[in-house]
Write a structure and sequence with these properties.
heterodimer; A: 431 residues; mainly beta; Rossmann fold; Neuraminidase; 2 domains; six-stranded mixed β-sheet; five-stranded antiparallel β-sheet; 4 helices; globular; B: 186 residues; alpha+beta; 60s Ribosomal Protein L30, Chain: A; 12% strand; OmpA-like (chain B); membrane (chain B); cell division (chain B)
Chain lengths: 431, 186
């Protein structure tokens, strides 16, 4: 691989544990009206050793955060069964529980979690399984249990065992800004700083296999696009053009990165072939063309353009080279992201002078505003299409917030200090 | 000190004349002619020295004037400031911005230094769209400078979008300070 030679290693910059205060904490602000009551019983520990984490607590938090479940408090449980024989449905009906999840954790070289889900009304076991992991990432095991339970009950695959990228900015006592690119679990836990810089870091985005990312860093004194492997930390500068180098977006097959360059005059969308590094300019307009994102089938690209006077979403069809306008409602629609179904498009929409997150159905062309706060931006949709993570302001601080695609569930993920921005939700990750 | 070689040459001439006089035997007429020549040479040398002195004085005055002019241009630039502000959602130069830029252009015409223009926006709207707006602002400053005679290769533009506000917090009071282009001489 010729690219390997060009890969630069900045080992000292990468993969350092983040200080606890930069970690995101979750505050649920709005759930569904009639959430499903589920008892996640503390998991028993089998064999020698100590369980590395409270698996049941992580699962209960995941389900609560979805807004669709109301986990039963532990002190309301009449017993803590860990095997099917010990589950007495009468006890759970007595406290209006619809589902009971029990489990066992086996510590060791290969951490193992066994779980079983019971439907209280039907009085039977409905799901059982086990998860194990050699790396001992107990929290990821717990999230995979949450994914299985969520999918069984709602019919939608869970997206708890996924990860986030986000940018944070902290100002030190001398008034100097420090920008950090952080990788964390979807619940904000286990944050790892991937890059720290005195200069801005922007637009983190995931490769479809979840093993690589791309972003914009100003560390050279100008914006440049970098790619970085998560496991090895190897990184490479992809662009160094005069003018804008922004908005990298990986194609669904991972072979191409769409990006915005202004080297030929005005900001236009270019495609970089990752094998040859050759560039292909796909928009040619004196207006601003920016914020490209790929449709899940890889056949067209959505982007923001002010060629009509105000920023609106347009769609470029790669096979025909035809561009058509997608949004018409309002005078500011920008930075679209599309769900895996190819239908739900989330974007920034201005209404009454305020910037909200909205969802636009590409089939019916109906637009629905999801948020009521101002200065909402950078929407990123979960791989299962259920939740939208975005950046907003709380007071003078930048925080992350999440809203379900139907607008019914909301929670905030503020950092304990500093500003957080530009969340990017990972695709599904291979265990 | 430029007049020294001239005076030196005159002195050499003078000594040569005196030497010729000393060596030329007894002819009185020859002696008189030699003396006259020496006197003429001395006068010519003095004249040359005077002229050189005057030229030097003129040069020094011109240099002083140029330095004063540069100081005046520098002062005008300092008074104008190096930050140019923009209206909301606009990359059009305001009258104040043009006046301030004129001061920079006048100074840049007298030297060959390069400049860098950093474009910025307020926090409203999306980050990557604002990157493009920041570039549009920097380009509009660059275009004004180029039209007024500054070579485009001397100007670099970089957009920071909304990433580096000078005033934190929301509201027009803060936003108006952040919609700007900053000029720095390289």
């Amino acid at each position: 691989m010729t690219t390997l030679a060009r890969i630069l290693l900045f080992a000292t910059l990468m993969v350092s544990a983040v200080s606890a205060r930069a970690q995101l904490v979750i505050e649920i602000t709005q759930g569904m009206d009639d959430p499903t009551a589920i008892a996640v019983v503390p998991f028993a520990t089998e064999g020698a050793g100590i369980a590395p984490a409270d698996i049941a607590e992580i699962v209960a938090d995941d389900l609560r955060r979805s807004g669709q479940f109301s986990p039963v408090r532990r002190d309301n449980m009449l017993s803590y069964p860990s095997t099917a024989d010990d589950v007495y449905f009468r006890d759970w009906r007595a406290i209006d529980t619809e589902y009971v999840l029990i489990g066992r954790v086996t510590p060791g070289e290969r951490l193992r979690v066994d779980y079983e889900l019971f439907d209280v009304n039907r009085e039977r076991s409905v799901l059982s399984g086990s998860q194990s992991d050699a790396s001992g990432e107990a929290r990821m095991l717990a999230h995979r249990v949450s994914d299985a339970v969520y999918e069984h009950i709602t019919g939608i695959p869970g997206a708890f065992a996924t990860r986030l990228l986000y940018v944070s900015v902290e100002r030190n006592l001398q008034g100097k800004d420090y920008y950090r690119l952080t990788l964390s679990d979807a619940d904000g836990a286990r944050p790892i700083v991937l890059l720290e810089s005195r200069e801005p870091i922007m637009a983190p985005s995931w490769a479809p296999d979840g093993r690589e990312i791309a972003y914009v860093s100003f560390e050279t004194g100008r914006p440049a696009i970098f790619r970085q492997e998560l496991r090895s930390g190897a990184r490479e500068q992809l662009t160094n053009f005069r003018g804008l180098n922004s908005s990298p977006a990986w194609s669904p097959d991972g072979n191409t990165v769409a990006m915005v360059l202004s080297k030929d005059g005005s900001p236009d969308i270019y495609l970089m072939d990752m094998a040859s590094r050759s560039l292909n300019r796909i928009t040619r307009h004196y207006a601003i063309d920016t914020e490209p994102t790929w449709m899940p089938d890889g056949k067209s690209i959505l982007f923001t353009s002010d060629r009509g006077g105000r920023p609106q979403i347009y769609r470029y069809h790669l096979q025909t080279g035809i561009t058509d306008r997608v949004t018409f409602e309002g005078n500011y629609n920008a930075r679209a992201r599309i769900a895996q179904d190819g239908r739900n498009m989330v974007l920034v929409h201005q209404r009454d002078g305020q910037y909200h997150i909205a969802i636009h159905d590409l089939v019916t062309d109906r637009l629905q505003v999801l948020t009521s706060t101002d200065l909402d931006e950078s929407p990123s949709i979960a791989p299962n299409g259920s939740m939208v993570l975005y950046a907003t302001k709380s007071g003078d601080r930048g925080i992350l917030s999440a809203v379900s695609v139907d607008g019914g569930v909301k929670f905030n993920l503020p950092a304990r200090s500093g500003d957080v921005r530009e969340p990017a939700w990972s695709p599904y990750l291979m265990p | 000190m430029k007049d020294l070689p001239v005076a030196g040459k005159a002195l050499t001439l003078l000594f040569t004349a005196a030497f010729l006089v000393a060596c030329s035997g007894t002819d009185t007429q020859q002696q008189e002619e030699a003396a006259a020549a020496a006197a003429a040479a001395e006068a010519a040398a003095a004249q040359q020295a005077r002229e050189a002195e005057q030229a030097a004085a003129r040069e020094a005055a011109a240099a002083r004037e140029a330095a004063a002019e540069e100081r005046r241009l520098e002062q005008a630039v300092a008074a104008a400031g190096s930050t140019f502000y923009f209206d909301f959602d606009s990359s059009t130069l305001t009258t104040e911005a043009r006046q301030a830029l004129d001061a920079h252009i006048a100074l840049l015409r007298t030297n060959d230094r390069n400049v860098r223009l950093d474009g910025h926006t307020d926090e409203r709207g999306t980050r990557d769209y604002n990157m493009a707006l920041g570039e549009r602002r920097a380009n509009s400053v660059r275009d004004y400078m180029v039209v007024n005679g500054i070579a485009s290769y001397r100007i670099e533009t970089v957009s920071y979008g909304e990433e580096q506000p000078v005033a934190y917090g929301s509201g027009e009071e803060n936003w108006s300070q952040n919609r700007r282009v900053e000029l720095s001489r390289q």
